[in-house]
Amino acid sequence: MRRALQIFRDGRLDESYLTIPLLPGEQGNMQTLEAMKQIVLTDRLHPDLRTFVLREIVGGYDGHEPERQVQAIFEYARDRIRYEQDPVDTERVADIWSTLYGLRRSDGVVYQPEGDCGIKSTFIASCCACIGYESCFVVIKQRANARAFNHVFNVVFVNGKWIYLDATPEEAPFGWKTDQIFEEKWFPIFS
Prior knowledge:
Layout: E1 4-8, E2 17-21, H1 25-43, H2 47-57, H3 66-80, E3 82-83, E4 90-94, H4 96-101, E5 114-115, H5 117-130, E6 135-141, E7 151-158, E8 161-165, E9 183-188
Parallel strand pairs: 1-4, 3-5
Antiparallel strand pairs: 1-2, 6-7, 6-9, 7-8
Helix pairs in contact: 1-5, 3-5
């Protein structure tokens, strides 16, 4: 079975996704990161997404409280998007609407938003970009001699400094970064 990259767009699981072959090892990581980057670059241009982020995620914090806005985005992704591994031999990436509303039962009831570290990282980067904050994806290898990166999270530029955002561990505080890293690589979104 060949590994596949599934790209979900526009909040629909049934017809708005693309499945393409995923290259092996780090090449597949870079292919996935490029798809995540394209989602962020597209999502940031939608005024309805900006309105959603400002109203529903950052709530009472305005642009004079940038660190609180970014923290609200991080906490939303950490606490409201349940961590679930991708299907076997599949890497999934999704835009904001697909992450929040893409998984529906046949009776129309929406499941709780779910996804792995890639889904959460794309969500954070897209939300930050919608309200004017630059971020990068950070990929790491957590095992020596690993053929590919096995985890992704964000760094966001706020108040003149980069802040780490890893929303995958349920207990992760704002600004935390694991110390179990054998190799780390930053993947810029806006360059």
